[in-house]
Amino acid sequence: MLVALCCLGSALTLYVQALTHAMGAKRWGLLGLLFGPLIVPMFITHKRLRLRQARGDANVLMQVR
User: Fold this and answer.
1) Is residue 63 a part of any domain in this protein?
2) How many domains is the chain partitioned into structurally?
3) Given this model, what pLDDT does residue 60 score?
4) Does residue 18 lie within any of the structural domains?
5) Domain that holds residue 6
6) What is the pLDDT of residue 52?
7) How many CA atoms lie within 13 A of 54 on its CB side?
8) Considering the domain boundaries, does residue 7 fall inside one?
9) Which of 33, 37, 39, 51 could form a disulfide with 11 if both were Cys (CB 3.0 to 4.6 A apart)?
């Protein structure tokens, strides 16, 4: 029962986060439902890669002064 609740909570969280970051919400919700919190690091990495791709490789995120 606890595992099912963790998977359901993870699915809802990933679905909402994917919606707010313009990613495939249904896909991430389904992955969260199947794998639970184990998929969260993959989601974070995918989100970071999409942000980097959108900004381009030539743009600098932070400058050292």
Assistant:
1) no
2) 1
3) 63
4) yes
5) 2-55
6) 83
7) 9
8) yes
9) 33
Q: Which amino acid is at 57?
A: D
CA angle (27 as vertex; 37, 41 as ends), nearest 5: 35
Question: In the structure encoding, which two tokens stand for residue 54, read together?
Answer: 């959108």
Backbone angles phi, psi at 21, to 5 degrees: -105, 15
| pLDDT tens string 4-60 | 999 999 999 999 999 999 899 999 999 999 998 999 999 999 999 888 888 776 666
Residue 15 · residue 33 · CB < 8 Å? no
Q: Is residue 19 assigned to a domain?
A: yes
Classify burial at 33, counting beta carbons within 10 Å of its beta carbon; exposed 0-12, middle 13-18, buried 19 or more: middle
Q: How far is CA 56 from CA 4, 50, 51, 60, 61, in A?
A: 39, 10, 9, 9, 10
Structure tokens that stand for 18 in this block: 């994917």
Query: What whole-number distance in Å separates Cα of residue 42 and Cα of residue 39?
Result: 5
Token pair 């639970």 in the structure block, residue: 36
